[in-house]
Amino acid sequence: MGVKTTLPTSAYSLEDYLPDFSIQDDYYSVSLATSVQELDEAFKLRFEVFNLELQEGLQSSYLTLRDEDAFDKQCHHLIIKEKITGVIIGTYRMQTNEHAQQGIGFYSGSEFQFEMFHKNVLANSVELGRACIAKAYRNKKVLFLLWCGIAQYAIAFQKRYLFGCCSLASQNINEGNKLWHQLEEDGHITKSDIIPARKEYSTESDYSNYKQMEQVNMPPLLGMYLRYGAKVVSYPAIDREFKTIDYLILLDVADLNPAIKRLFFKLPESEAVYCPPK
After folding, report:
1. What is the domain range of residue 277?
2. Does 66 lie in the same domain as 170?
3. pLDDT tens digit string along 165-192?
4. CB within 8 A of 160, min separation 6: which ones?
């Protein structure tokens, strides 16, 4: 893969531009995957977490022992390695609007009606997905370093927004709708332009089916995004192939708490990211 580190002014592809950054502490290092070997190891980790541990994921992954789909080829893959072993212990999949346009689109767009997504927001966004950390390494330090990597990626591509699917490990439509209404009651749903799921992913059902249900536990990753100020901008979507119920979340980096912004972006508040108008 050819590596260029100056952001082109016109359309670009993965071959044209790979942001050059490395984040590390005494124990871990974060970078983008640059070799077939690193990508393969990341896909194996995703299989171990999604399919084997969480009993989610694609059925086809059991044939290759890797979680891999058609979107992986057009995306960048953030990885974190343990220095002493060199093993990849966490990963995030990321792409920009430009990459989506040159490829097969956004992964989230296969589940949600992206025709209703604000075009200017979408153009200035990074899509995040397939986030996972090996079970033995799930701690605040590893997650923090991954988020520092996401921040550097947003800076490199001059993007203001982060979005992606957050999942509830369930195939129960009533549970999915119950959680959505809990989020609405707590003020976590956007107040306008809520994006519907595509018809084949819709969870529409009678409110009487779930209004008396017990509270549904918040998925940890979704809870983290909400604490940082993200909003849920969609209705639920049921992903029967991956065996989850998904919610589309959007984070405006410009709205981050200044202390959090400095922590992740390592820059003065006013210089953290390129912030075009909404």
Report:
1. 106-124+160-278
2. no
3. 999 999 999 999 999 999 999 999 998 8
4. 124, 125, 154, 252, 253, 254, 273, 274, 275, 276
